[in-house]
Specification:
- The structure is a single chain.
- The protein is mainly α.
- It has helices spanning about 10-20, 30-45, 50-55, 60, 90-100, 125-140, 150-160, 165-170, 175-180, 190-195, and strands at about 60-65, 65, 70-75, 85.
- Helix content is about 50%, strand content about 5%.
- It is globular and about 55 Å long.
Length: about 200
Amino acid sequence: MKTQLKTLTPLECSQLLRYLQQPDNDSVPCRVYHRNYTMALLMLDAGLRVGELIQLRQDQLWYINGPVGSLVIEKLQAKNKHERTIPITLRVHDAIERMHCDWWTSSWPEKTCYAFYRTHSSHPLTTRQTQRIIKAAGAGSIGREIHPHILRHTFATRLMSKTSMRVVQELLGHSNLTSTQIYTHPNNADLQEAIDSLNEKS
């Protein structure tokens, strides 16, 4: 029997993002919270793997005078070395604009400028650092520690109810459809919705 994928409910997603946006520690600059919020958003709204996220450069998110309309994950960044293009959501667009104001100093970023870093743009956050950020945010917002991959699973599960499996496959960057098929299995919310429908009057 296959293990059921762990995902976040819409409420949990809102709680997580709200927690990341609202600093509760005066010793941490607001821009650090926005950086962490933007990273979580790119996993929730673009389905990025944590390894792809930390490799993102500023020039992939910002083009001349504003945020890009679509995010291109390059072959060398992708797990399966397959380039893919992901249109960005409005809230990702807004988050990128603020990242440019708070973190990125140049309108023409160099190829060596990573998007997410601590002190210098030539040294990006590590996978482990990102995992710790998301883990702590999960504990603080929804009462349990979560792994970044749960955000990608949530992205895929949400999409599966709105579009075709082929589209989800392309957005996730899966080499074959069998990898995407795991998201066709019903989750707890699907099961509850099915039962609740029995209570509705015909």
